[in-house]
Amino acid sequence: MNILVINCGSSSLKYQLIDMKNEEVMCKGAIERIGMEIKGGEENVIIKIGDAKFTYDKELLTHTDAFNEVKYILSEGEHKVVDSFDQIDAIGHRIVQGGDKYTKSVIVDEKVAADVKALSPLAPLHNPANIQGYEACLNVVGPDVPQVFVFDTAFHSTMPAKAYMYALPYEYYEKYGVRRYGFHGTSHKFVSHRVADKMGKDFKDLKIITCHLGNGSSIAAINHGRVVDTSMGFTPLDGFMMGTRSGGVDPSAITFIMKKEGISPDEMDTILNKKSGVLAISGVSSDDRDIVEAQSEGNERAILAHEMQAYEIAKFVGSYVAAMNGVDAIVFTGGIGENGVWLRSKICSYFGYLGVHINERINETTQKGAEAELTEPSDKVRVFILATDEELMIAKDTAELVSKLQ
C-alpha cells in the first residue's frame, strides 16, 4: 500500500510518499511560496529521493495548483516514482486541531471536513490551511481516493478533566471549548511506541515521558498507554519557553504590559508567539545552533536562555513523574531533542533523585537522526534519544483505516 502524506501551511505544501510494505519513503519534498511571486533565484519546489535532491522554481497560485504539481512530480515528471497516480492508495493529512470531537484519526467525508472547518477558531493559523490541502487533493483526484485526517490533538484525548480543565468560569469551556488540548500528538505517539519497542516491553506496561523539543516544544506524560498530561494547552503557546514562544507566563504580567504599552490583543499575541522565548532572552536567535555558538563565546544572555530552558523542562518532567507516581523512560526527540547535546545533559543533571546518570560520551557523539540510550538497560529510569517520524505515524493511521474499507 502506498500512502501519500500531506502537511499544508497557508503558503506551503509538504508531501511524502511512503511504501507501507517496508515503510520506505519513496519521495518527499515541499512546495513553498504558494500564491506568492517567485523572485529570481528562488527555487520553491523541492524533491528528495533517497540522498538525491532536486529543486526548481514555479509560480503556483493555489494549493490545488501545488497539489497538481505534486501529482506531476510523483507520477509524470522526470523523477517520477510511480507509473500512475492510481498506484497511490490513500492520502493522509496532518490536522492540528480536532477539539473534543475527534479523538482518533478518521476517513474524511463532507461532515468531517465541515467539522474541522468549524474548529478553525481554535487553530486559526493551521486548520484553514489543513482544509485547503484536503480540498486541493479532492479537486485533483476526486472522491475515489480515500483521505484520512490525523489530528495532533487526538493522542492527548485520554487526559482526565483534572488535567485538561482550566480554573476559569466553566461557561467558557461550555461556550468556546477553552481547555487544554495538547499538540505534537503524532510525534509523542510515535516515539512512545518506539521506546517501548527498544525496551522490549508492551507500551501499556510503561510510564513514559516524551520530550519533543524544537522551535516549538512540548512534553507528554504517558501512563500505561494513556496520556495523562501534556505541556501545551489551549494553543501551542502554553508550557515552557520555546524558540519564539513565551510558554507559561503570569496572566497579570501580560495584562500589565498591555496597559502600560497600549498594546492590543493581536499585538500581544504576536509578541508572545513570535518575539518571546529563547529569542527574547538571548537577544541572539531562536535557533538553538546559534545559542550554542553564542554560549560557547561567553554570551551571558545566551547562557541564561539555555539555563532557563533546561530548568523549565526539568520542572515539567519532574511534575509528570509525580503525576504518574514514577517513570520508566524519558525520551528526547525533535530537532533540539535529537541534536541538543548541552541541553540534554543539563536537563538530565536535575534527575539525580531518579538515579539518572547519563553516559556523556554517548550523549556527545550521537549523530543527527540516530537512536541511542544514554543510560544502562539495568537502570530503573532509562533515557533515550529517538528520532521522531510524524509522517510515518500519519501513514500508519491512514493505512490502518483504509485497509478496513477493502
Supply the key terms:
single chain, alpha/beta, six-stranded mixed beta sheet, 14 strands
What does this protein structure show overall?
The protein is of the alpha/beta class and 406 residues long. Helices cover 39% and strands 18% of the residues. It has 15 helices and 14 strands. The protein has helices spanning 63-75, 110-118, 127-141, 161-164, 170-176, 185-199, 251-261, 265-274, 277-282, 288-296, 300-324, 334-339, 341-348, 360-365, 390-403, and strands at 2-9, 12-19, 24-31, 45-49, 52-56, 90-95, 106-107, 147-151, 207-212, 218-223, 226-230, 329-333, 372-373, 382-385. The strands form two sheets. Strands 5-4-3-2-1-6-8-7 form an eight-stranded mixed beta sheet, with helices on both faces.
- Total strand segments: 14
The run of helices and strands is EEEEEHEEHHEHHHEEEHHHHHEHHHEEH
Distance between the termini: 12 Å
Structural class: alpha/beta
Helix proportion of residues, in percent? 25-40%
Shape: globular
Note the total helix count. Answer: 15
List the uncertain runs.
Answer: none
Topology, element by element:
Blueprint lengths: L1 E8 L2 E8 L4 E8 L13 E5 L2 E5 L6 H13 L14 E6 L10 E2 L2 H9 L8 H15 L5 E5 L9 H4 L5 H7 L8 H15 L7 E6 L5 E6 L2 E5 L20 H11 L3 H10 L2 H6 L5 H9 L3 H25 L4 E5 H6 L1 H8 L11 H6 L6 E2 L8 E4 L4 H14 L3
Parallel strand pairs: 1-6, 6-8, 9-12, 12-14
Antiparallel strand pairs: 1-2, 2-3, 3-4, 4-5, 7-8, 9-10, 10-11, 13-14
Helix pairs in contact: 1-3, 6-15, 10-11, 11-13
